[in-house]
Predict the 3D structure of the following.
Amino acid sequence: MNRIKDVPGYKNPVFKGKEERRAKVQANVAAKGFIPRELVPNKVSWFYSHLGIDDTYLQAESIDVISDHIIALFGAKVLAYTKMILLHSQLIWRRSTRTVRRSSNPGRLRRKGLVRRENRIDGLFLDKSTPDNIFHLETYRSQGSISVTASQQLRCYFVTGCNFPPASASSDRRTDIRTVSDPVLEKASENTLEIYPRVMWNVESWYGPVIEVFEVEGSRERRLVIGYKMGGTSKFFSALSNLYHFCSLYSAQ
């Protein structure tokens, strides 16, 4: 098994105006009136600091969209409390970003909840990918529980449309990943930029998925890099999630 250093696979961009924009989000949430004013600072702070979401989303989305996500999450928590049920997921459609939130315990699978939502992400987006309509999925797990009365953590899914460069003429040489990638690759660390091309080249020459597993130094964490050709599999994301939950494992991101 390959070993890698315990460093992020992607660089978290520096968002210089984060606190100023956060204040505007807080004012926007308060102005909409759905959350009691005395609770707004705490809800905004929790959203920004404890969901594990990187600054790319917070910088790219509009103040209105972020505010609506915070309000929707608050509403879902209230609904879950009044109906004595686990926090229900919300599928929110906003411009180019689709956000799904789901509460869960690490390493524990609730078949009627988590699997159904992840199957839906597969069916709506990932399995329907075409060269002209491709989606990028990122997931984040919150730090700590969703509230003082509930031990579940919150897992967020962000699905966005990809923006690939125009296809170039085929060549006998190995594909340069930078010429065929979405701008999200700009966040990749140097180590990631060494691993991804190797997996991609193997995908181009092999049949079926290509899987590389890495042991993270000084921890029990394992990182998987999986590549497959478009249309080469279906329900892959939900099946993989189902497998590691069955093994009492969980994905941190």
The mean pLDDT is 79. The beta strands are 2-4, 90-94, 97-104, 135-141, 153-161, 210-216, 222-227. Residues 199 and 227 are 6 Å apart (CA to CA).
